[in-house]
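Problem: given the chain below (309 residues), write out its structure.
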Amino acid sequence: MSAVGAGASAPRWRTWVALAGGVLIVSTAAILIREAQAAGVPSLAIAAWRLVGAALLLAPFVLALRRAELAALPARDHWLGMASGLFLALHFATWIASLEYTSVASSVALVTTNPIWIALFSFLVLRERLPVARVIAVAVAIAGSLIVLVDDGSSAATHAPRPALGNALAIGGALAVCGYLLIGRRLRAHVSLLAYVGIVYAVAGAALIVAALASGVPLWGYSAGAWILLAALALGPQLLGHGAVNYALKEVSPTVIALAVLGEPIGAALLAWLLMGEGIGPVKLCGLALLLAGIFLAARSESRAPAPA
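Solution.
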C-alpha cells in the first residue's frame, strides 16, 4: 500500500485539503447568521436565502455541465436527492433558529452530535449491539451535554435568552443532518458533486421558501448590509464550505466527515469570543470538551466497525 505512486495519491491530498478548507469556512457561518439576525432578518428567511442563493449561483454551471447526467439519473436517485434536500432544509431551519436562543458555542457543538444519534438509533431501533467503546463515547457525550445544558440553564447572558429551546433546536438540526450525510454518501458514490448539490440545494431552498411563505415570514425588505451578509453566507459557508465537504464525501466516509466537522464548533466558539465577546466559563468549557470527546470517540469507533457483508 505504501508504494502507491504520486499520481494516484494526489486526488487523496486534494480531498483532505478541500475538507480542511471547507471546515474553516463553515466555522464562520454562525457569526454571519448572528449578524443577519441582528440586522432584522428572520431565521427562516436566513435559511431560505442561504440555500436559494447557493442554488442560483450554481444553476448556470449545473445546466451547462451536468444537464445530461441529471437527465440520465434513474428516478430513484432523484427521489433520494430530494430527500437529502429536505433533510438539509430541516437542518438549517432548526439550527439557524437555535442561534436566536442559545450561545454560539452550545449551538454549534450540539448540532455536530450526529454520530451519537446514529449510535443510539442503531441500538434502540436496529437492535444492534454497541461496542464497549461506543457505549463509553455515548456516555461521555451525554455527560458533556448535560453539563452544557445545566450551565446554559443557569445563565442569564443576553446571548442565551432561552437556552433550553435553542439547545433543543440545535439537537434537532443534528438529527436532520444524519439523514443528509447518509443519503449524500450513497449518492456521491456515483453522482458528480455538481449534479448532487444542484438537486439538493434547489430542493432545500424551495422547501424553505415555501415554509417561510406559509408561516408569514417576510423574505425581502431588508437593508443593504443584511443582503450582503446573506450573500456572504450563500457563497462562503454554503457554496465553498459545504461544497468542499460534499466533494470529500465521495472519498471518505460520513464518520470521517463527522470527525472533521468537530473543528467547526471550536472555530465558531473562538470567533464568537473574539468578535462578539461570548466568553466560555470553566463549567461550560468542561462540558464542551466532554461533548466533543464523546463525538470523536463515537465516530472513531464507528469507523473501526467491520463493514456489513
